[in-house]
Design a protein that fits this description.
Blueprint (H helix, E strand, L loop, with lengths): L2 E5 L4 H13 L3 E5 L10 H4 L9 E4 L2 E4 L1 H11 L14 H36 L5 H22 L12 H4 L2 H9 L10 H11 L2 H6 L9
Parallel strand pairs: 1-2
Antiparallel strand pairs: 1-3, 3-4
Helix pairs in contact: 1-3, 1-7, 4-5, 4-7, 5-8
């Protein structure tokens, strides 16, 4: 049975899973969750995703939600497909550095970038309120300070967890791309190291595959 991704084409978290599927060359079927019809709050959906959020996957009856958890599951299940994206579990130092990088993305990037994307993209849809440019610009300033630290880290190594690409790097793509779409060049003006890293990530075929909206399946 082919993997099923239940999500929405404009969802940043759904795109995060699609990127990993492309990097790992995992075929999938995309199942549209129609926000306009309230599909994400229907009992048939919340039975599998109790928070009423997208995406979740159905892997031959195994249900899993939260995009980062899904990504780690897929990378662990298919270690021989595509790039590894996660370290060997027996290499405790590599695992430690990888977990550190994932924590950096969650605590120092997505918590800020996600709020900025919500302000300009989803706020009106969810609350009916207009985006506030003062709030958005304030969040971008906070992100600038975090990316100054990224500049130092990436001056010592190619990627966040070392010299190999991991999920920790790919997790930045959906929010980073949305910020650029709103006219913020915060991801490419921090210095040569962040610029090199971001250009590397955003030019990957997996991101070109997902950036305009999650496709119906793996090409």
């Amino acid at each position: 049975m082919v993997l099923k991704i239940h999500g929405h084409p404009i969802s940043t978290c759904t795109a995060r899973v699609a990127v990993v599927c492309h990097e790992k060359q995992i075929p999938y079927e995309f199942v549209l969750v129609d926000f306009g019809k309230g599909d994400h709050k229907a009992p048939a959906f919340t039975e599998h995703q109790p928070f009423g959020q997208v995406p979740y996957i159905d892997d031959d009856g195994f249900i899993l939600y939260e995009s980062r958890a899904i990504a780690r599951y897929l990378a662990a299940k298919y270690p021989q497909k595509g790039l590894k994206l996660i370290p060997d579990p027996n290499d405790v130092k590599a695992v430690g550095l990888y977990d550190q990088a994932v924590s950096v993305e969650t605590a120092n990037f997505s918590t800020i970038a996600g709020r900025a994307v919500f302000e300009n993209m989803f706020k009106q849809m969810v609350t009916g309120q207009q985006p506030d440019p003062v709030v958005f610009n304030g969040l971008i300033k906070q992100l600038e300070e975090k990316l100054k630290v990224y500049e130092v880290i990436l001056g010592k190594q190619k990627y966040l967890a070392g010299d190999e690409l991991t999920l920790a790097d790919l997790f930045h793509l959906p929010y980073g791309h949305r910020l650029a779409a709103f006219g913020s060049d915060v991801m490419s003006r921090q210095g040569p190291n962040v610029t090199r890293w971001w250009n590397d990530l955003s030019s990957r075929e997996s991101w070109k595959f997902a950036e305009k909206g999650v496709p119906s399946g793996l090409a």
